[in-house]
Amino acid sequence: MADRSRSGLEFGVLGPLQVLADGRQLVIGRKGMRGLLAMLVLEANRVVPIDEIVDSLWADEPPATARTIVHGYVSRLRRMLEAADPAASARILTTPPGYQLSVDPWRLDFHRARQLVSSARGKPAPIRAQLLRESLGLWRGQVLTDVPGDPVTKDLEELRLAAVEERIEAELELGRHLELVGELRQLVTEYPFRERLVGHMMRALYHSGQRADALEAYQRFHRRVVDELGIDPGPGLRLLHEQVLRDDPALSSPVTESAPVPPRPGIVVPAQLPAAASGFIGRDEELAWLDRLCDVRDLTATTIAVVNGPPGIGKSELAVTWGHRRAEQFPDGLLFASLNGFAPDREQVEPAEVLARFLLALGVPADGLPHGLDDRVGLYRSVLAKRRVLVILDDAWDPEHIRLLLPPGAGSVVLVTSRRRLESLVVRNGARMLTLDTLSEEESVRLVDEVVGKPLSDQEPVAIRMLVELCGNLPLALRIAAAKLVFSPEWTVEDLVAQLSDDDARLRTLDLADSGVGVGRALAVSYRNLPPELAETFRAAGLVPGRWVSPHAIAAVCVIDLGTAAARLADLADAHLVVEQWRGGFVLHDLVRLYARELVEDREHGALRRLMTHYLAACDHARRLIRPVSDGLDFTDSTTVPRPATSAQALSWFDKEWPNLIALVHAGAEAGLHDQVWQLVRLVHTYCVTRLVFREWHGIAEFGLASARITRNRRGELLVLHAMHDINNRAGALHGTLEHAEAAHRIAVELGDPRYLVMTLDQLALALMADGRAEEALVRHREAVDLARRDGDALHEATVLNNLAQVEQRLGQREAAARHQFLAMEIYHRNGDERAYVVAVNNLAELYAELGLLPEAEEHARQGVELARGGSMQFEEAFGRKVLGTVLAKRGERVAAQAELAESLRLFERLGSTRSMLVRTALEALTSEV
């Protein structure tokens, strides 16, 4: 069989749903997305109707936005596949009445399995057995166990059973009877009516010297089919029964045996400190930090180090491991106490109790222990006055308790571990602070290998890296995941990865119920220790659907002032439930976010609406700084939103918030907040046009349009259609948009608002032009100009004049185009629309060049480039340089022209604009002339 490359995309349904990109497993995410992708894979290269998809994903109760949600899933799957494999070895096509996965069948595991089974037929037993084992090796568990709905997979189960039966038959021919008896007993129990399996078991038993058992197997099957099905065994099985009865010589065969597996040795634990974890991995920098702290410590004082970090990060393990490694530095003792500051099922240990334990360990007799706390503190300090000890105080909560347990100065070291920062120890006691972060990917992989006891990273490198990513490189999660592989040796790493890929099940998977250890349990302790107001803030942070959360968002959700919100987030950071990665930007670890989302209740539905309201106001303020707007939407009366002061600051705010905004559109649509979804989609349109983020826009635009239609908001439908049309125009993709433009104009006529009539007439003209109906386009443009002038709508007048000039330019009417472009430029300038003004300047420069007015063209092009550079308008700068290069080339200044065109090409390529091809052609032509 031909060797096939593992490059590109591969799809697996023979087990949990799996997508590999160049051998690396992708995380698919939501159940709905997995269900949809599973249907497309099973029906690869055939169209799956959208109604069938909806019925499969939601059975009899699809939500009102089911089709829109499916569109969103398809959009996200496309982005995932395109990002993973730009070569597009597999694509999701929109083919009415649904979608189709276009892919080479060899990229589907069930296709390869079928081909291997087919190839095995007629081959000699050794080759047949090998091919069938290879086929069965493609199964990773029960088919599509992790997808919703009821995918049709019975034929795949039948294929597996047929492959199992064929493989066993081949191995029976090779004389492996005794090896197969146990497997066959289990199979016959699981599939009691498979005659072929019964026949295989009879042969295996007979050739293993268990003739009576072989006959009994037949009798059990005979009774079962007669009693339950009312039929007799088939003729083949009856013939085999007769052969066994008479010891037919044709049934003879050798017997083989298997070798035993040696046991694994145990581990010896130390006596004084708790046992250090076997195979401590990583933390080289942290251990070196503690070493330096110990080596340069003041031998007349007590050195204190606070090792802090989130639950499960490995604080205790680091402290104990370091204590064992540097034990010789403390000749007078190693003391350890767990203070149970965050223990889930135990009370905090009081200082008096800890002091009693320490004093007993230091040789004070039980009857000599003082009763009062102050007396115990005094005796403890007296005993240790001239001794050098290491004291590890694990899982601390209260700094005041720590101070009572500090030994006096004699070069002693105290290591305190806590989920809190305990900053007052730094201020009052000179403590040094060490905050632990997650492990690196390499360290995480090594940790899993160490716990499992074998190099999984060599055997399943792609799957193991996927595993550590899903565990968030958190040591506790990694150890639990590795333990699952130890406890269930039949599991592969891919099996565990598939289970962890389900966001709804990940925390349950990272839990060892019998031992009471789990990531969710550890987080629950931190959550229960929060005061009510911080618990509310933590849930609010989990409610925010994006990648990070700001004090402004928390203030909106919790209905508190900005200062209180910032203080609460700082307190959560102190508890290591969030991390402040930049000023005002708080991020939750993936596993912490999953836990926080589990706490969000239905009653907090109003919180999501408040969050949407906040972002509507923030987006509206930011977009108005980028350029003036006149669409009738106004949310600027909010006082809690961030308020950038310049266009550049507004764009920077959008850049940072863009992933959050996309996530919020999806969350709002799924929660049924349709009245706000279409508004948010409309408000981000200005940013998308400016930054050319067309692909992401299309992913949310359908949600906006569907939401407007669900709420029957005609203005909303018009504004989203207008935004979609504008994006298509900027992307050069207006062909086929006439139907949408006509629909928007009909709504404008219905509403009767002049500004909407101007907007939609302008778009209708552009769509007509793209459809080849130039004269009609000119009529519509002129009608829009007249209406805008009558209504005093200067901004829309300028926009229509600009577009009219573009149409006239294409028709060769350059003098008229130049007049209209000049008027648009003047209106933009008077009304302070800086970005549109730069666009108009560049367009006018291009028209002057075509009219042969080269000095005027050069002057305007240089002005456009200068203004674009000052306003961080990369697209406008690129276009201006393209025009300037063209003008300079016409004037014979080839070297300067090449420089401008080269810079234009660089900018267009950075932006991913298709205009780069035109510039490259012009540059190559100019270079060849030289």
Automatic annotation (TrEMBL):
SMART domains reported for this sequence: BTAD (SM01043), TPR (SM00028), Trans_reg_C (SM00862)
At the top level of its lineage, which domain of life is listed? Bacteria
**Entries under CDD domains matching the protein:** BTAD
Q: Where's the OmpR/PhoB-type domain? A: 1-103
**Keyword check for Nucleotidyltransferase:** no
Q: Check the record and name the PROSITE patterns matching this protein.
A: OMPR_PHOB
Key words, A-Z? DNA-binding, Transcription, Transcription regulation
Q: Which InterPro entries match?
A: AfsR-DnrI-RedD_regulator (IPR051677), BTAD (IPR005158), NB-ARC (IPR002182), OmpR/PhoB-type_DNA-bd (IPR001867), P-loop_NTPase (IPR027417), Sig_transdc_resp-reg_C-effctor (IPR016032), TPR-like_helical_dom_sf (IPR011990), TPR_rpt (IPR019734)
Q: What Gene3D superfamilies does its record include?
A: P-loop containing nucleotide triphosphate hydrolases, Tetratricopeptide repeat domain, Winged helix-like DNA-binding domain superfamily/Winged helix DNA-binding domain
Could you cite one Gene Ontology molecular function of this protein? ADP binding
SUPFAM superfamilies assigned to the protein according to its UniProt record, in alphabetical order? C-terminal effector domain of the bipartite response regulators, P-loop containing nucleoside triphosphate hydrolases, TPR-like
Instruction: State the DNA-binding region(s).
Output: 1-103
Q: Which GO terms describe its biological process?
A: phosphorelay signal transduction system; regulation of DNA-templated transcription
Which family would the database say this protein is a member of? Belongs to the AfsR/DnrI/RedD regulatory family.
Spell out the protein name for this chain. DNA-binding SARP family transcriptional activator/tetratricopeptide (TPR) repeat protein
**From which source organism is this entry?**
Saccharothrix ecbatanensis
